């Protein structure tokens, strides 16, 4: 049975999106992306300028990957900066897909909700397919949908912290209230179990970078995340049991003492 992820009218088999920064080498980045089976990779023109890159293999690998490129505006702190970078990325990477980041605070790299909505509106009017990196605030998410975003990427935790799904109440609320919107948990995922949990909760996909790139063995970790995302999605599709407070025996007994049961089995 096919269970495809559809974003802006394009379908994907994989529900794991990965970043391309922080790897020990371009070769390990390439191998890790392959091991993750990701079909969408994010990259930043600002942090990985092709003109300044000593080692051009990085850009060769990106071009050869066959993945949907998702340029991001990492590090941008104002709508103007983000729009400029988006336009440059569109030209260089030949795609109108954009992971929009407008950062509002240096301590936790929290998105600026006001700047995000303003920038998303402008970029969508220019024809971009915007995937905004946002907080898990329901009202903000609705405003982003109102200006034309078709996919939202709420954070699990601040970028690079590996803390997992910090505010499950907010995330669960988003999932319930925006049931027909593709929601991708972006950032703060530190372990495959956390990615699996996001998928089990019904999120459509996860995006992560640091947990793979900074692992002792990034390629092995990329494969671990691939398996976790597949497992979380399968569990969601299978329908998880409801949690309950009181115990319930998993081996039901008949309404008679066990020796009578044994006798009746022996007599049969
Ligand atoms: C690469 C990228 O886009 C990051 O900004 C993204 O949000 C991933 O965050 P982690 O590094 O915490 O996985």
Note down, in words, how this protein is organized.
With 268 residues, the chain is of the alpha/beta class. The chain has one domain (5-241): Aldolase class I (TIM Barrel, Alpha-Beta Barrel). It is 41% helix and 15% strand. The chain has 10 helices and 10 strands. The chain has helices spanning 26-36, 57-64, 79-93, 113-125, 138-146, 168-177, 192-200, 210-213, 218-238, 258-267, and strands spanning 5-7, 10-12, 16-19, 40-44, 68-72, 97-100, 129-134, 153-154, 184-186, 205-208. It has a 5-stranded parallel β-sheet with strand order 5-4-3-10-9. Strands 6-7-8 form a 3-stranded parallel β-sheet. Helix 3 packs across helix 4. The chain starts with a strand and ends with a helix. Bound molecules: 1-deoxy-D-xylulose-5-phosphate (DXP). 1-deoxy-D-xylulose-5-phosphate binds at residues 19, 21, 42, 72, 74, 99, 133, 159-160, 186-189, 207-211.
């Amino acid at each position: 049975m096919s269970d495809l992820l559809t974003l802006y009218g394009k379908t994907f088999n994989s529900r794991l999106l990965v970043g391309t920064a922080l790897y020990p080498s371009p070769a390990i980045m390439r191998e890790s992306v392959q091991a993750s089976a990701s079909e969408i990779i994010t990259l930043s023109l600002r942090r990985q300028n092709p003109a300044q890159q000593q080692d051009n293999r990085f850009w060769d690998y990106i071009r050869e990957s066959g993945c949907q490129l998702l340029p991001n505006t990492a590090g941008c702190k104002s709508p103007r900066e983000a729009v400029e970078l988006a336009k440059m990325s569109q030209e260089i990477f030949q795609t109108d897909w954009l992971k929009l980041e407008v950062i509002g605070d240096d301590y936790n790299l929290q998105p600026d909700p006001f700047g995000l909505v303003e920038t998303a509106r402008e970029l969508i009017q220019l024809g971009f397919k915007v995937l905004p990196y946002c907080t898990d605030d329901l009202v903000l998410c609705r405003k982003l949908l109102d200006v034309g975003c078709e996919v939202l990427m709420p954070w699990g935790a601040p970028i690079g912290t590996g803390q997992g799904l910090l505010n499950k109440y907010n995330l669960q609320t988003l999932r319930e209230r925006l049931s027909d919107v593709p929601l991708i948990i972006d950032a703060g995922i530190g372990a495959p179990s956390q990615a699996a949990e996001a998928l089990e909760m019904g999120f459509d996909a996860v995006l992560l970078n640091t947990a793979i790139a900074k692992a002792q063995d990034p390629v092995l970790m990329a494969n671990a995340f691939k398996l976790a995302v597949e497992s979380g999605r399968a569990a969601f599709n299978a329908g998880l049991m409801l949690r309950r407070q009181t115990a319930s025996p998993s081996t039901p007994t008949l309404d008679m003492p066990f020796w009578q049961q044994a006798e009746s089995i022996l007599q049969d």
